[in-house]
Amino acid sequence: MALTLSTIDRSYDAPDADTIAKVLGSLDGRRDVFATLAHAEETYLQATGSATAGFTLTNQQGSLTQRYRSVGAPVILERTVEIFAQYSQGDERWRQAMAWEPDQVDVPQVAWYESWLVYIIGFSLVIALFVWWRGWW
Fold first, then answer.
1. How many distinct structural domains can be found in the chain?
2. How many distinct helices (H) and strands (E) make up the chain?
3. For residue 136, what pLDDT is reported?
């Protein structure tokens, strides 16, 4: 699978180790706060933070139920570059490089009365009743 390294405004196809190091080193924690190395939209390794303060790593392997984040203190730049390089080469050692914990993502459920379909059906019913009661003309 082809890898893509992306930030908020840049994207690199099939990045090498130097590109990964440059991009991670450029994260300042203000405007550029994350870099994502992705196989697909739902399969990725992401670093959030800054080169000076360290990073929190997140990885997702297909679905939101398989999403994990690094545990403990922020990961320093050099270690983050190493983990990203291992991930990009398909080296599975990045998984054992640190402790991971499940990252629960709350997906809000939409109540039935907040659905546009309910409003459209209700509005259509009101129009139909009005036309039936008053006539078309």
1. 1
2. 4, 7
3. 72
- Kindly report, residue by residue over 41-96, the tens digit of the pLDDT: 899 999 999 999 999 999 999 888 899 999 999 999 999 999 999 999 999 999 99
Strands (E), 1-137: 4-6, 11-13, 34-40, 43-50, 54-61, 67-70, 100-102
Return the pLDDT at 13: 94
Within-domain flag for 125: no
Cα–Cα distance measured from residue 24 to residue 74, given in angstroms and rounded to the nearest whole number: 14
Give a yes or no: residue 134 inside a domain.
Answer: no
What's the rounded Cα separation, in Å, for the pair 30 and 45? 20
Q: Which domain holds residue 52?
A: 4-106
For residue 137, the model assigns a pLDDT of: 64
Contact in structure between 100 and 70 (CB atoms under 8 Å): yes
Domain assignment of residue 34, yes or no: yes
Which residue matches tokens 């991009």?
23
Residue 68 lies in a domain: yes
